[in-house]
Amino acid sequence: MAMQTTIIGQSVPRLESKDKVTGRAEYIHTMQLPGMLHAKVFRSDVPHGRIKSIDTADAAAVPGVFGVYTGEDIKTVIPEPYYGPAFHDQPILALDKVRHVGEPVAVVLAEDPHVAEEATQLIYAEFEELPAVYDEIEALDSEAIVHDELKPAGTFPDLKHLAGRRDTNIALDYHLRRGDTDAAFAEAAHVFEHTFRTQQTMHTPLEPMVTLAEQREGRLILHSSSQSPSFVRIEISRLLGWPENKVRVRVPFLGGGFGAKVYIKTEALAAAMTLLSNRPVKYAQTMEEQFYTITKHPCTFRIKSGVSEDGAILARECEVWWNGGAYADIGPRVTQKSGFTAAGPYDIENVTIDSYALYTNRPPAGALRGFGIPQLVWAYEGHTDLIAKELGLDPLVFRRQNILKNGRPQAVGTELVDTEIDGVLEELGRRMNWSTPLDKGEGTVRRGRGIGVGFKASISPTTSVAIVNVNADGSVVVHCSTTDMGQGSDTVMAQIAAEVLDVPIETVIVVHPDTDVTPYDMSTLGSRSTYHMGHAVRLAATEARDKLAAMADELGLPDGHNVPVKELFIRKFGMQAGNVVGSGDYKPPYAPTDHDTGQSPNATPYWMIGATGVEVSVDTETGHVTIDRMVNVADLGTALNPEIVATQLSGAAVMQLGFTMTEDMVYDAGQVTNANLADYKIPGFFDIPFDMENAVVEAEQKSGPFGAKGVGESGTFGVSPAIASAVDDAVGVRITDMPLTPEKVFRALRDAAGNPLEEA
User: How many structural domains does the chain have?
Assistant: First the structure.
C-alpha cells in the first residue's frame, strides 16, 4: 500500500454531495412499496381526560378506507403497548386517558392518504375532562397528576436508580452538593439572585418524521427516518416479544433530526399498523404533527451566587425545573446530565444544584440540539452579566477571573482534562476586539455587544461498534449505525478508515444504518459520534490493517505495506478473491453520580466548549433587534474536517438564533395555536447575521480519535445570553425570558422609562 498525505485535518468534500444535489439521495418520505397503506392519525382535542368512548363507524364507512384502529386494537398484537427510553409511559395510541392536546387516539389506514385524512375527521371521541397543568413550577404540587404510577424502563445504566413512584409529577430529581454553600453565602460580600425562563420550541426538521413498515417471511422491516436504529430494533423487539433478528431497521439519509428522531417516534405505530393490516404501512407526519410529537423543554431556572469583595464567586445555588410534557422521553437524562453543569463553566468551591424533570399536560419534550445546555447557559451567563454590571466589572474580565481551567474539578467532581474553556474565552475576546470600545450609535438606533460561554458533558456511558471490510481490490466498506442527518458523519468515518488503512478516501464507502448489516450504536445524538463511533471505526480499521500485515508476513513479505492490497489477495488466494474484516467497539470509562451528593470522579469522557459574541443594533422605537455581527468559537480538540466543523458551528448558531429571537410554541388552553411554519417563525436568510465568523482554538483531546471530540452542539451554547447581553449593553434593559421578540424588548424599554404599555 503506497503511502499518502494524511487525510485527517483535510476539508474532504462530503461523500453524499453529488447524490443530494442531483436528487438521487434516498429519503423515506419518497419511498413507495406495492400494496402500501397510508396511516393518518386522529388526535385528542383535550389536554387531560379519561376516554369514555371512541366512535369510528363513520370513518370506517368512507369508501377506500382499509381500517380504523384504536389503542384497544393495538393490544391484540402488542399486549403492553407502552414505550419510552426512561419510562415505559407512552402508549402507541391513547389508552384509558389522554394527557395532551394532539395525543394520537385512533388511526385510519387507506391506500390514498387524502381518503385516510378525510376519514379521521369523522371519528368522534368523548372524554371526561380532568384538571390539567401546563407550568413546570405548578406541576410540583398540582392536583392534576399526569401519570398515576411511574414505571422506569431500566434501559440506561445511569438511570438504573429511577424508582417507580405514585401520585407525583416529578419524574426525576437530581441533587448535587459540593462544599458548604450556606457558610460561603454568609461570608460573601455580595449575594445576587435571579430567575430566568425559556420557552417551548420545536425541532422543525424539514423532513418530518416518517416510518414505512412491512413484513417479509415472518420478519418486521422498518424503513425509518431515525437517529437511533439500534435502539428502535431493541425497543420494537421488546414490545413484540420477538428476538432482535426478527426486526430490521433501515435508515437512509435524514432531512434533519436535531434530536427529534432519537429513540421511538413513528416506528411503534407503523409497526402495530402493519401487523394489524398485514400490509405495508407508511406513517408520515405533517409539519403540524411534529409539534405534538416532541419538543424542547421549557425551563425555569433560579440561580443565586455569593461573590467576594474582589470578584471571586464563592458559592452558587441552582434550582432548575424542566417541563417534560406528558411523556418523559429522555427528559430524566436531560435533567441529570445537563443539570450537573447548571453552575456554569466557573471554578466555584461551594455549589448546590437541584434539577427536576416534571410531567405536565403539554406535548412531550426530549432531546434537542444542546440537550438542555442552551437553557442553562441562558440563565447562568445572564446571571454572570448582571453580577458584573452590578459590581462595575467588565464582563470578560469577570469571567476570566472565575473561569474553570484544566486540572480543576467541575462541580460534579470530574476534573477538567484537555478542556480549553479559558482559551475559547480569550480567543472570543480577541476576535471581538473587546478591548476597543464599541461605537454605541446615536438617535433611535443604539448598538451594543455581548458574549456568552458554555460547556457540555458528553453523554455517558454509551457504546459504539463498527466493522471495516477490506475487499480484494483494496476498496473499503465501513459498516456503522451512525446516522448521517446532514452533519457529515459518513465523510468523517471514511476519513478515519482511510487514514488508518492508508488508502485514498475515494476507495472508501460507508454503509447507511441497517441493523441487519451494521452493528450496534447507542444513537446519533449529543455530539457523540466523532468521539465514540470514530474510536470504533479507528479500532476496526486498525484490526483490518493488522490482519493485512499478518497476511503479508504469512506470504513472506515483511515489508508488505509497500505491496498493493490487491496484490496481497492475489498472492494469498491465487486470484482477486477474499476479504479482510476488522471490528471495533468503544465504550469510555464512567462512574455514576452518587445518589445523595450528585458527585462523580468520571461523569464524562470529554467536555464540549462553545462561546459566542455578538454586536447588535436596537431600534428603540420598535424594539427590533438586528444581529450585525456574530463570532462563534469552539474547542473541539482536533478538527478532522475543518469545513464540516465550520458549517456545524454556523448551523448550530443559526438554529439557536431562532430559539432566541422568534420561535415560541403559543398555547391556548393546552392547544398549540401556531403549529405551522407560517406562524412559527424559524430563521430565514434575512435573519442570519451578514457578518458571521467561526473559529476553533488549537487543542487536542488526547483520549479522542486523532485528538478529536464532538462539535455539533457547541455553537448553540453562548448565542442566547450574548444577544440578551448586547441588547442590555445597547439600551440598558435585560430580558430574562425568551424569546427576545420586538414587542418584549419594546415593553422593557417602556417599563425602564417609567411609561409601561398596557397589556393587550
Answer: 3
